[in-house]
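Progress against Task 2.4 (sequence-to-structure conversion) is shown through the following example record, which the project officer requested during the mid-term review.
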Amino acid sequence: ILLVKSFEYLNQYNNNQRIYFSIKECLNTTLPSRRYSMFNLFKRNTLYFPGCLNKFILRDIANRYVSILKNLDINFIILKDEEVCCGIPAYNAGYTKDFEDLKNKNLELFRKNKVKKIITPSPQCAYTFEKLYNIPTEHVTETILKHPDKIPLKHQEEITYFEPCYMGRYTKNH
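Structure tokens generated for the chain above:
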């Protein structure tokens, strides 16, 4: 009951229902067996940003990444329907005013939610946030590779990975 009241207070105080997921989702999610301090439960200033392709078309892939990040015990928030496009299509097409409008909308949303770092499956978004917004950003594969001890291997398999241009050429992350 104390935990529920704490979440209700936080949600009321911050005037939003998405803080650290909803109360219902938090209570229905079993925490990993590792011991969590209350500090870690509330320390979620990393944003999972799915990118437009995953958000609107490949939703199942975006949801799989969420599951993977949760299984790796990564603390993060999801802003669901609030974030807008990172703006890279407008930027690349020369629509700098439109890009700046999208950037300003996102930056305001990030400030409001105290976002300090972004994890995204989109190489274009990773480039945009890192280089054009100046926000520490990781492609989801970088995040996953930082936790090899938490990745269960069922078989000895060879894995092939396609490195998108934005990852190798533009962000220099190989």
